[in-house]
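pls design
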């Protein structure tokens, strides 16, 4: 498999950069070739199957458990997966969208929404992150095309400035409270299918969710979270942030640059 395109730059238009600056998310087509997506679908699916510890049937799980199978930091377990989530193409796109000189790895995660899986409630990722600024971004990489019935990401465009709901973890409560707030905001909800090779990027504070997977097939997605290479660790404000500090930023002191062995610089101008 020729993976050389993963190290090739991808030039964004000014229109795309402006769209992200305003809305805090963007979908970008043809970032990856169909052949590369299929290649990594096989590799990542095998690793998720190997690492998965979820044995309860869907109907016995809570809302979070029904949303997806979640496996973290696969880049540390498989050099093939590392070639995707740490590649220069995705890291450069992250740097350009965030308007920073370089990016580090925060962590990756596979998110596999099983056939019949439930919604992913409204939430903002940065609730969980002990990071000192909003210069952090997630790339969402579907490992197949994602039609509407499989539960693609839905974004509340421009909601990164809404403060209500930032103190809520992913839950039934976050789905209800954030949805109520969005009903009286001017942030349009955008949910569209993903073509194969299309990816999205979204910032830490934008509200997003996903619908249920009403098919019998698993919606397979790989994600990687990139942060400004100068990101500082802030004092954690909740249990999730304490866990992330210990797990993804081991040994880093509060108010110091997050430069542990798990946070390599992936791209720098």
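designed seq:
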């Amino acid at each position: 498999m020729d993976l050389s395109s993963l190290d090739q730059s991808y030039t964004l238009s000014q229109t795309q950069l402006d769209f992200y600056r305003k809305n805090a998310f963007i979908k970008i087509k043809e970032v990856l070739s169909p052949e590369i997506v299929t290649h990594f679908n096989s590799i990542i699916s095998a690793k998720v199957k190997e690492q998965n510890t979820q044995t309860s049937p869907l109907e016995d799980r809570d809302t979070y458990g029904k949303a997806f199978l979640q496996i973290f930091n696969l880049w540390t377990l498989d050099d093939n997966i590392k070639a995707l989530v740490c590649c220069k193409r995705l890291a450069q796109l992250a740097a350009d969208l965030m308007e920073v000189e370089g990016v580090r790895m925060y962590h990756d995660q596979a998110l596999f929404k099983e056939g019949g899986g439930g919604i992913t409630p409204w939430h903002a990722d940065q609730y969980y992150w002990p990071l000192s600024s909003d210069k952090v971004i997630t790339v969402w990489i579907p490992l197949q095309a994602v039609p509407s019935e499989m539960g693609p990401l839905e974004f509340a465009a421009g909601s990164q400035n809404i403060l209500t709901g930032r103190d809520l973890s992913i839950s039934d409560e976050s789905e209800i409270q954030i949805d109520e707030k969005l009903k009286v905001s001017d942030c349009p909800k955008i949910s569209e299918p993903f073509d194969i090779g299309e990816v999205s990027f979204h910032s830490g504070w934008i509200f997003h969710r996903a619908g249920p997977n009403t098919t019998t097939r698993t919606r397979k997605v790989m994600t990687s979270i990139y942060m400004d290479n100068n990101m500082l660790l802030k004092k954690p404000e909740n249990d999730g942030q304490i866990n992330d500090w210990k797990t993804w930023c081991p040994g880093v002191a509060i108010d110091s640059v997050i430069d542990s062995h798990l946070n390599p610089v992936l791209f720098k101008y």
